[in-house]
Amino acid sequence: MTTALLIAHGLLAVALLGAITHQAASVLWPVAKPAGSIVGRFRAVAAPGYANTVVILYVLTAILGAVIYAEYRISVRIVLEELKLNAANVSFELKEHLAAIGLGMLPAYWWSWRQPGGSLRAPLTAILAFVVWWNFLTGHVVNNIRGFGS
Amino acid sequence: MRFATFAIVFAVVYAVAYALSVWKNYALFTYHPALNEFGLGVQKAKDGPAMYWYGWMATSAIAGGIAGFAACFLPEPAARRLWPGLAWLVPLCAMLFFAWLLRGYFLR
Lengths: 150, 108
Fold this sequence. Notes:
The structure holds 2 protein chains of 2 kinds.
Chain A: H1 2-28, H2 38-43, H3 51-82, H4 86-112, H5 121-143
Helix pairs in contact in A: 1-3, 1-5, 3-4, 4-5
Chain B: H1 2-24, E1 29-32, E2 37-40, H2 53-71, H3 76-80, H4 86-101, H5 103-107
Antiparallel strand pairs in B: 1-2
Helix pairs in contact in B: 1-2, 1-4
């Protein structure tokens, strides 16, 4: 059951990563003229349309993460501590704190995308994008820690 | 304007309350995953580890919710003086605080 939930958590995280990266690119690096290249088209998305999706995916990913976190605490973290994998252990600890703080930013983030040209969009989206990327990479590395770097 | 005030105050108070909750361990409840048991407040580990993360978030959500809700009753001129940038600046500072708090483990 935990494995199924972990896979679902990972898949939701991939979708969230795609949505927030598209949105962050479009708000931080907007295209000035009609996009021709693939990078230009990546940046030229209708960013406001992603806000609801990002909020829903963030909450769902966090809920699933919270559900499987107990199993991590019992089965995985103890092993990381015994193997003295401090960087992985503390990166995961930072992930939990970033995820929690990100949850508190969601109402302001959602509101900022409801305002035409809101000044909060860029910083809130950039911070949430950083949180999502950090959490995705950390989760991925810790999930594969037995093979990673060995 | 009301939701904007709520959202800004919630983001600020939630981040501060979360940082304080973790730092001083003000968990609203404790979860004992090995026993699948919840206990009110901060409890010591029983059989296996004790988890406070859920309790920290609950403490922070209540603090943020109450503060945000109360801020909605501020007079309009006072609410307008609230700088919206606090909604990202304070959570960012809270994140940096955690990076600082955990720096010792990274450097071990």
